[in-house]
Design the sequence.
């Protein structure tokens, strides 16, 4: 992504950005003194604080605002649960081993990398594209003879490769094994042939208790715990539908060779919502009208099929009407997801909703949209929003023989009149003995038409013959004294159904990483001075307190400021180091601290302090109470800097910032 | 605990309490449709919400207020880390198997249960105590012949048993095995002999990646991740001491037969603080003077040794002065822990700090106090507050060859004059070849006295002899041209040391469980009407909105109320069910909702609503804005009900509550 730009339109330099994250202790690979472990990260104070604020906003925006039922379910999960859900059999990646150096390659990545390289080389040969860029990885591949800078392919080969790439997600291991042989795909970094693909399950396996024979796993998603709590949710919500549960919790994926930093890790925080809805009535949402006019950047299946990648700005009401988005509930959540992203400070120019292609979705899903955020690694799936239909509840119900349905009182009772055949049990019992139940069941199963015909036969001939597989002769004779067949009326007042599930599923780590990139820029007058423009409500520390110097006269004023901030539960840092105020601000801009308060000699005279805005570096001056009040309002999102600057006296400073 | 009482002094009935938790979906054993798993619990909306509020208060009370550095470290932990920390070898329980029925018993529990039963039976025989109560478990044991209701023991046997019980925690598996044979201890529920004790490690084992040969574990505590982040913490805090990190995260313990509900589970949330302090200067705490007068209920080692169990109320300043509590930092945290407990609603009459006996502490700990909460299971350790000395940093430093020390600028540079022996390397290299380094090291290691003596010898005789183990002869001769020994002066400006660690470690699940019990009581006029008196800041839902009826005239007023509550981010529930207002309030008292707002026909007339206090059932009446403002202040802890009742018009109601 060489054309990826920062917030202010500057080219994004990954080295500088990574160095900032390291310098300010945002994150690092876990267990560094022991050599670090790939795919596991520790969060330092700035990132832990950011996560905590983002989670609080998520809770408020979804759980509180939508009155969802928050759940916390166990991470340790017994085998049978994940067997039913399909994870034991299907939560796997296919791997190929390079037998000569032992390298393990993800099969789909291998095929994709090799075919894409060949296509790019073909485009270069046709003069349609530049030759592949010569970064280190490419050079290595070239050396191994896997990629030629420019080599033309047959038209039919190009079409075949494109078809393979488009359908790769649907391939089984065998399919991929055949492709590797057929297209002579080798390990690009060595040129060696690879062994046939082997499925490797990605769940972490363990065992609960000392004596259990069955394995257990660390859950790969929080969703299953929520489905298995379904009866509790129905109880808590008095069976009212729609209803939604939400879980914020960790899931695990035993990646074989993790890469891309925080974007693909082995242990990650998810926030998942399961919204249960009656499939009858088109999955309407009671609050849809409140968002119908909101426009979203939608990259529909149709646009993607036309080969374009630019989303259209479409009002969600229109998108649901035209059936581009399957239903109101899905549409409502897409809007809520976007509003959440906006609230935490995601750049709206780096957000889109991409619809899954038919072959991307699980077989049971009826529609799925990913909220993708653009970062320096490319467009990254950060929220999946899928309609999982009734799949999960149905499979767990079948596997456990429990009732995972909702029973609904019908508004209008349903009157039903139909033919009913009833055995006189006092007589049928002794007559049919062990077959009595089978006879009764066979009678029940008869169609309405047949029952009507048999009632006439019974009337006319005094007996009928009914097929019963379970008895030896395959049929039984029933006389008038054993059976009556007549039209009966009854009234149904309830209806039972399995709800469908709309599931918005948030990967918190990916969102946090994208957010930090989106907030990153450098001051124009000095590219070494970088800034993280976290919105005040999500910034991990809100205020930097900077006394002009260590002069003892400032102490009581610093103390007063501290207790005013403490009283409002606002987090702050006091920087009493010897360097200039400008340097101290600069250093803390990199932590994304939105506000700075200076205590100087005027403070000693009149009790006023200055308040500095990180992004504009503009300052106002007022007394401590007024300044802390303004900070409090901005931290809660009730005011923004522009409002404060408009109502408090502006303070013009000299060259302090330099 | 038959004498355990509720908040209002009523006898506590566990069945009623458990039934409330079940009915209101607070928690349940995980994976119920699959038969549930012992020791794993799911939290429903009320408990998840309670936990979230308690965690927010914890963050504010500790992390923000004390300016701690929050960390989030990985749960998956490689083998080597936990080998160094001692968990691979020592995080184990000893188990005995009953070979006849396969039952597995924790060895220490087995010995304790049997010996205590014998002692109680002895006391009964002496008329000093009632015969053991005949609950179901006891009846079973009696049936198995393991306990006799009253059987006198020798004086010496009593003394021996008491000694064993007091030192049981120090026993190895072998020790316990001998005790079982020596004292003829059998499985009390069957009367069978048991097999010798076997150590079973309590960590969940798994594997990171597909090819790793080393096992990994789910961490048994969050502490190790914090110790391994030490260098990052020093970097972030610019090396200023004392400093503290804090982690809120999950830990795991593969209990063999979990019991006692939430008090002993396999997967649990901890909040752990590691406070790093310079061991020189007596571990003083800069804010100790702000808490010195706070009195705490301290059950010291001395009181326990005297056989008493009633704590003394002692000011922490006094306790530290008298060395009952080892140091100021430990004392400061004990106070902060108590204040936290008070804030979330723990009954101060059910809290005490119990000091560990010498034999209870880890070998490296210098003092340890548990904050214990009384609940219906007895006094329960909910926070451990230990001085771990420099143990953890030292062992990790040694195992990884990294520097886990703090370097401090000395206020006064230190001038050191001492004897120094220096080899002339140009000559000693060729002369001693591979042994040169060993010779140099041997010289360095000589004592000051010896160096002084050798300098004279060298002066007088032109050569000296020095012991060097590594050379064949065990010594080398050094001539004047090879070595000089003289007094040298140097100035040290820095000092390096390994900080000591004070670790307050909170078990969140145990605290939550105790909190719910502490808040539980039943209305005097109707024992079936139970109440959970959660303080407004921790209550999972803050407001119940109850329209008098479903009359359409109320809709717009309900909507106005909802948007006023939404604007203040206050969680609420609307109960439009058909039952009486009193019943609706009653039902929600069990969820601990502190406030109720009624919309009635007067609301339609003048826009006023009533506000009801859960605990007193008293009501006030005012307009929506005023009522929502009062709720907001009480939820933030800025006001309590008494204040609101004093300033808003009291509303007298009829028999609605009945």
Sequence:
């Amino acid at each position: 992504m060489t054309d990826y730009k920062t917030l202010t339109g500057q080219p994004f330099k990954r080295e500088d950005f990574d160095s900032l994250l390291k310098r300010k202790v945002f994150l690092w690979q876990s267990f560094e003194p022991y050599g670090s472990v790939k795919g596991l990260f520790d969060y330092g104070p700035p990132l832990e604080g950011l996560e905590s604020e983002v989670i609080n906003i998520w809770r408020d925006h979804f759980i509180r605002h939508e009155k969802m039922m928050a759940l916390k379910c166990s991470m340790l999960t017994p085998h049978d649960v994940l067997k039913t859900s399909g994870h034991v059999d299907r939560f796997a990646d296919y791997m190929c081993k390079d037998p000569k150096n032992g390298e393990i390659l993800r099969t789909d990545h291998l095929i994709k990398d090799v075919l894409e390289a060949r296509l790019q080389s073909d485009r270069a040969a046709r003069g349609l594209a530049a030759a592949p860029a010569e970064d280190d990885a490419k050079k290595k591949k070239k050396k191994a003879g896997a990629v030629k800078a420019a080599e033309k392919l047959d038209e039919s080969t190009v079409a075949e490769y494109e078809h393979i790439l488009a359908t790769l997600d649907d391939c089984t291991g065998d399919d991929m094994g055949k492709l590797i042989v057929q297209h002579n795909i080798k390990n690009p970094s060595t040129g060696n042939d690879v062994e046939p693909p082997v499925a490797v399950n990605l769940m972490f396996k363990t065992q609960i208790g000392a004596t259990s024979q069955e394995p257990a796993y660390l859950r790969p998603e929080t969703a299953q715990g929520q489905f298995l709590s379904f009866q509790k949710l129905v109880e808590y919500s008095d069976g009212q539908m729609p209803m939604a549960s939400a879980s914020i919790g960790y899931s695990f994926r035993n990646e074989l060779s993790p890469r891309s930093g925080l974007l693909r890790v082995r242990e990650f925080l998810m926030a998942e919502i399961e919204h249960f809805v009656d499939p009858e009535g088109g999955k309407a949402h009671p609050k849809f009208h409140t968002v119908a006019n909101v426009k979203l950047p939608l990259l529909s299946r149709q646009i993607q099929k036309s080969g374009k990648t630019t989303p259209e700005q479409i009002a969600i009401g229109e998108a649901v009407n035209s059936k581009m988005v399957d239903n109101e509930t899905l549409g409502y959540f897409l809007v809520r997801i976007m509003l959440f992203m906006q609230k935490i400070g995601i750049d709206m120019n780096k957000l889109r909703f991409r619809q899954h292609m038919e072959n991307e979705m699980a077989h049971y899903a009826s529609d799925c949209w990913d909220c993708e955020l653009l970062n320096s690694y490319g467009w990254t799936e950060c929220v999946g929003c899928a309609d999982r239909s009734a799949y999960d509840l149905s499979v767990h119900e079948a596997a456990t023989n429990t009732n995972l349905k909702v029973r609904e009182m019908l508004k209008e009772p349903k009157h039903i009149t139909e033919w009913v055949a009833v055995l006189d049990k006092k007589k049928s019992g002794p007559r049919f003995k062990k077959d009595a139940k089978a006879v009764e069941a066979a009678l029940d199963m008869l169609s309405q038409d047949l029952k009507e015909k048999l009632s006439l036969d019974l009337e006319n001939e005094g007996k009928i013959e009914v097929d019963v597989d379970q008895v030896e002769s395959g049929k039984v004779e029933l006389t008038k004294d054993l059976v009556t067949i007549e039209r009966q009326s009854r009234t149904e007042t309830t209806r039972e159904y399995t709800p469908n599930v709309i599931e918005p599923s948030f990967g918190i780590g990916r969102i946090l990483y994208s957010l930090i990139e989106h907030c990153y820029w450098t001051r124009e007058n000095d590219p070494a001075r970088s800034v993280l423009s976290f919105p005040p409500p999500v910034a991990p520390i809100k205020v930097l307190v900077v006394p002009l110097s260590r002069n003892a006269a400032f102490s009581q004023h610093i103390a007063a400021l501290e207790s005013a901030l403490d009283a409002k539960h606002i987090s702050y840092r006091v920087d009493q180091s010897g360097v200039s105020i400008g340097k101290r601000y600069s250093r803390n801009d990199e932590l994304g601290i939105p506000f700075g308060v200076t205590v100087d000699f005027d403070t000693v005279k009149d009790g006023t302090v200055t308040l500095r805005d990180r992004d504009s570096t503009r300052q106002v001056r007022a007394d401590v109470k007024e300044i802390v009040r303004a900070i409090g309002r901005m931290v809660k999102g009730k005011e923004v800097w522009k409002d404060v600057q408009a109502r408090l006296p502006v303070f013009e400073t000299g060259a302090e910032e330099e």
